[in-house]
Design a protein that fits this description.
Length: 493
């Protein structure tokens, strides 16, 4: 998946005017040098953006959220064990991937969509694994996993349910699958624990708890834990997480200006050596860090950043060494290959690891792309130029001609083909309605068809996730009225 954090940030900055603090997350004004928007626990999103963001934040962790990876975490022992994962995988040589010759643009099959009326309402992520769709949801009692062979009739996965009885995970949680294993990462923000659940057959499950070391924030700041990109393949499982610690800006401002200012706070941002903020009545304030004996370095909480772990079998885990992507802002995306994992770095860099402990820099100049595994071939989606191509190729696949918008999310691939939603972050129309979302599908990377997703007299719809099986596609959508739908799409033959 794409770097959803960046897309959301850019979208709201470009389309949403400044509003009140208790209506929306803080909007930064354009100040030179470029300001850093500061998140506090007071901020909320209004209107239609709430449903969009609530779905997106959960989905993003599956494969494309921009997570920072860096410091070491502890070694952990297995809690529940079963035999390990087979070491073979069926691959398709990259040179057999479709090229640009004899392309029939717009001539791909139409997808016939049918709503799965009885599908669980709580699913936020879906994958295809071992002849079935799996959907991860969250209920009052904790995480829950569903399974369906056709996308229409669903059952609770009992093996996972037995483990989940002892798991408290507030989320966001994430799910990924490879040809030889399925991996679920459940996040407990306090006391900062990841529960990693894996299976090689969908029936027998094992769980390992990883306690994540987080920085202390004696100044009153907050610490947050998020799961990052995951990968499951022949070399095992790769798990990442992001630790984010925040400076207590509100406490600092209260010390200098009084709590009555904090109670009326409207906007807050950091620009260079200044803290800029305003109150609901429009009064603007400026606080120089030097006036309170601080520097920009003091605003960064020590120990925040990244964590990553690797397991050959989902039973024994070890922390990844601080090399390669660990020295950067983190993983952009991660995909399995026959002998390890390929990882893009946030910013610049493409890396490979065979065991999660040593890293090889494949291309130090690699940037602006996410990786996607497709039937044994690694594809890359280029955010600049908006094209999809085989990794290492200079020629885009013809399906890329449909990617004529800035936002392509979600983007998934599987045995049946490649599918993506386009235009979900486009500006609202003059009537105030949400953008009309279109879907592009290609069975082979050569022929493709783009169509508007029609749901009759539907409320405004957000497409949250796709899963691609051998002969059909599953889609999760959410209406801005709070409704959730599951759709089964069958390409015409």
């Amino acid at each position: 998946m794409l770097d959803l954090d960046t897309q959301l940030r850019d979208y709201f900055e470009a389309t949403t005017p400044a509003v009140e603090m208790d209506e929306i997350a803080v909007q930064s004004e354009r100040v030179a040098p470029a300001p850093q928007v500061v998140r506090t626990t007071r901020k909320w999103l209004p209107g239609w953006a709430v449903a969009v963001l609530a779905t997106a934040l959960v989905v993003a962790a599956v494969g494309g959220g921009a997570w920072l990876l860096g410091a070491l975490g502890p070694n952990v022992d297995v809690a529940v064990t079963i035999p390990g994962i087979p070491s073979t995988i069926v691959t398709i040589p990259a040179n057999t991937a479709p090229g640009a010759a004899a392309v029939a643009r717009g001539s791909g099959p139409e997808i016939q969509w049918t709503q799965a009326v009885g599908a669980p309402q709580s699913m936020s992520e879906v994958v295809w694994f071992d002849d079935a769709f799996y959907g991860l949801g969250q209920k009052v009692g904790g995480p829950i996993l569903y399974r369906s062979s056709d996308g229409a009739a669903w059952e609770i996965v009992e093996g996972f349910a037995d483990l989940a009885l002892s798991i408290v995970a507030g989320g966001p949680n994430s799910l990924v699958a490879g040809t030889e294993g399925i991996l679920i990462c459940l996040t407990d923000p306090s006391p900062h624990v990841l529960t990693v659940v894996t299976s090689v057959d969908g029936d027998t499950w094992r769980a390992t708890q990883i306690e994540v070391v987080v920085p202390l924030t004696p100044d009153g700041g907050n610490t947050f834990l998020f799961s990052g990109p995951l990968a499951a393949g022949p070399a095992g499982f790769l798990v990442s997480a992001k630790v984010e610690a925040e400076f207590d800006f509100e406490g600092l401002i209260a010390d200098e200006f009084g709590w009555e200012v904090i109670d009326d706070l409207a906007t807050l941002q950091v620009a260079g050596d200044r803290i800029l903020f305003s109150t609901q009545d429009g009064t603007e304030y400026e606080l120089f860090l030097s006036d309170v004996g601080l520097t920009q370095a003091d605003l960064a909480e020590p120990g925040a950043g990244a964590r990553a772990w690797w397991s050959p079998d989902g039973m024994s885990w070890q922390a990844s060494v601080p090399e390669g992507p660990m020295l950067s802002p983190g993983f952009g995306s991660a995909v399995p290959v026959a002998d390890g994992f390929l990882v893009t770095r946030i910013g610049v860099g493409l890396w490979k690891t065979t065991d999660g402990t040593s890293w090889e820099e494949v291309d130090p100049t690699y940037s602006d792309a996410m990786l996607l595994e497709w039937n044994g071939t690694v594809l890359e989606y280029r955010t600049l130029g908006r094209n999809l191509r085989v990794l290492g190729s200079s020629e885009a696949l013809p399906v890329s001609e449909a990617f004529d918008v800035e936002d392509v999310y979600p983007l998934e691939a599987g045995e049946a083909g490649i599918i993506a939603a386009l235009g979900q972050f486009a500006p609202r129309g003059e009537s105030g309605s949400a953008p009309v979302v279109s879907i592009v599908f290609s069975p082979d990377g050569v022929e493709w068809r783009r169509s508007v997703f029609e749901e009759g007299a539907r409320p405004e719809v957000w497409i949250g996730d796709f899963a691609v099986g051998p002969d059909r596609v599953l889609m999760l959508s959410a209406g801005l009225d709070g409704s959730a739908q599951t759709w089964v799409g069958v390409p015409e033959q």
